[in-house]
Amino acid sequence: MNANVAVENTPEISLWNDPTVSVTARVDALIDAMTLQEKTAQLYGVWVGASDQGGEVAPHQHDMEEAVDLEALLPTGLGQLTRPFGTVPVDPALGALSLARTQIRIAATNRFGIPAIAHDECLAGFAAWGATAYPVPLSWGATFDPDTVRRMAAAIGRDMRAVGIHQGLAPVLDVVRDARWGRVEETIGEDPYLVGTIGTAYVQGLESAGIVATLKHFVGYSASRAGRNLAPSSVGPRERADVLLPPFEMAIREGGARSVMNAYTDTDGMPSAADEDLLTGLLRDTWGFDGTVVADYFAIAFLKTLHGIAADWAGAAGTALHAGIDVELPNVKTYGAPLAAAVADGRIPETLVDRALRRVLTQKAMLGLLDPDWNPVPAALGGADLDDPAALRGRIDLDGPENRALARTVAEEAVVLLSNDGALPLAGPRRIALLGPNAAEPTAVLGCYSFPQHIGVRHPGTPLGIELPTLRDTLAAEFPDAKITFARGTGIDDGDLSGIRVAAQVAREADVAVVVLGDRAGLFGRGTSGEGCDAEALALPGAQQHLLATLLDLETPVVTVLLAGRPYALGRAVEESAAIVQSFFPGEEGTHAVAGVLSGRVNPSGRLPVSVPRGPGSQPTTYLGARLAHASEVSNIDPTPAFAFGHGLSYTRFDWADLTVDVQEIATDGEFTLTFSVRNSGRRSGTEVVQLYLHDPVASVVQPVQRLVGYTRVALKPGEARRVRVTVPADVASFTGRDGRRVVEPGELEMRLAASSADPRLTARVRLTGAERHVDHTRRLHATFGQEPVVRA
């Protein structure tokens, strides 16, 4: 197979192919040489699936779009290839060969030799057959560990880049506002600072591997009414500015993300895909973003079909292009013939096409796709005989030992011990009753954007491609001397009560009952968690609560384990379970992590990224509520959670003491430093997660009672202590004031050093002095932490 594609314009290299010339000059020259149809061709993608025989990709036929004639499209060029690996099961090596052959054809068919950008999903790992299934983003949030998330993202990015992918559609930076929303599993949590820091780390890891990270969904998707997918969003400008936007701002400014994807939703009647103030005014003119804005799948067409603000496809194209969407995904619909016709007859200015095209070609140039030595053969196929596809099968391993070890680290750090009366760790039980619908289900650890749950379910009979040990398997390995008896009890959501009596009998005969409950990930109603799988209330699906209540009526101690995509109200179990272990779809190594926590091999350090409600109907609520959102004497509804944001127990004990503050008063442009000690006073090594919350007693506009402004993990051996130092700039106290500008106001503040949002350990009262100060997107975003060992005299 010819690995290099020559550009056949002139005997000499064309200006746009000359890497010694500035990118701006190269792109300008290329735009000047293009016809209108060649320009618009760079602004859309085609949804394809790689060939499992190594041949060229085939267009994916989607029920929301007409069939695509690739043969007719390619002579004018192609902007993107949509999900070549994430559409059908394909051996990774043959998929890489298929993509390479397709890129050769694309470049050879258009007169400028421009290949396509290939993008794929990577929400919880590269969404390809046989690739590592890492924990879902809600588990990333539970780690409170940006460094580990950054390493995970770099590994995901390396795997993607090695097989020819350029762009990943992650991370999701939506802040949870209502846990009934099905896509909670895809989010990082309910706090914007946690979402921003963990999400930025993921962006940094992905980008370090050469993958274009795509921030989504910009903005307001998670704030839909009643937690319904793709429903209108009812946030005001202040909530949007202070809760929903900061993670995107941070990931652009500090993460270097090169792409943004719009949200489907409308906010106060304005769809994000049509919002020029958002996609151009804020994103580009204010924040300085210079990458590409890509449409969420079908979002431009939705301006006509769902939002009703465009009369035809050309109107939808013009509206989106004017707002600032550069690339239509997943297929050509509006940015092809309708856009070209509207430009030709003067309805849409060609300058808008050129503006988007310049961003697309700039990105292609920076990816090396315009260079004369561009090679379509990816690194993973280097040195292979590309003319012998059969020999390539099995050559590429996307789930090697290093990946699995990293997946286990993330999973172990993400397990949250919610409660424990001393039952855990299990002390060598002789008889374990293992019960519940997720106890022996291999895919119970996977989210809806994992390959097996997203694509594999549509291909019955195809192997999973990765090892997925059940909790039944890993508990047997963890407790080899115990007799483990399994009974399913009930299904996830079938409401079947017929097996509960058997489960109760098994529990009666055991020393401990481990009941494994939660979700089944799926899409559009095919699961209990995932895109389009919204919940009417936060009760456990099906008859699971009935099973749990039946077991709690017995004398056998019950350990409740949750493998879920969202938090659920657990009823009596909050007080009556011997212990509760929460895991949010922890990935392929997840059951090893949970089994390790049950046995004590792993000392849990996960903290809740979302509150666990006490009742199933007290939504929507997060810990970020203002005073009126909390329990009061004027309402009979108490929204206080059963387990608060940031909560998580350990098998050791940590003591906090000796808080000092360097200065009690600082100017509104200053900073102050808190210093305190954390000691492991228990008998085993463990990690405490120090969380810093800000409480502003009096402000010019209503504020949350408290909000997270910093955190750090402190790993300590038994008896070891560390002196923790945190420097807090006044900027972190800023908020959107009455005039819509971000302000730091003088006055009293409380800085709460806490083990959770409901467990403050040390409180510093400080004062900001001087005039109020306006800040912008260049403000300081972080409190900074340092640690020093405490040396005993």
TrEMBL record:
SMART domains: Fn3_like (SM01217). Residues 688-757 form the Fibronectin type III-like domain. GO terms for biological process: carbohydrate metabolic process. GO terms for molecular function: hydrolase activity, hydrolyzing O-glycosyl compounds. Keywords: Hydrolase. InterPro entries: Cellulose_deg_GH3, Fn3-like, GH, Glyco_hydro_3_C, Glyco_hydro_3_C_sf, Glyco_hydro_3_N, Glyco_hydro_3_N_sf, Ig-like_fold. Belongs to the glycosyl hydrolase 3 family. This is Beta-xylosidase. It comes from Streptomyces melanosporofaciens.
